[in-house]
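thread: overnight batch results

M.L. [08:02]
morning all. the overnight job finished for the chain we discussed friday. pasting input first so we're all looking at the same thing
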Amino acid sequence: MSRTLISSEKFPPKPHNSPATKVPGLVFCAGQTATGEIRQATRTVLQNLKEVLELSGSSLDKVVKYNVYLRTMDDFAAMNEEYIKFLPQPMPSRSCLEARAPGEGTVIEIECIAIA
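M.L. [08:03]
and the structure it wrote out:
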């Protein structure tokens, strides 16, 4: 099975991961993170995922699973409102967990799996 690592100038590979990995039939997007107010951070992360998916030849309407990680579940309702506004219907499967932030000030991280 072949795999293609997806990156660009805006989304460069990092020493520990690539923005996305494409295998036959699927695209696995690494988590995108954001800091600041949760509503804007949610929109930023989803826009970045949209762009990474498009680099991979996929799109938001081909996502089959999202994993959402919040700094605090107190942000859940606000994140969920922005998530619903931003993404096409019907919504795919999703998990949402409270998790320790991977970087200073990070309030959200979202990763996804999509059909290629």
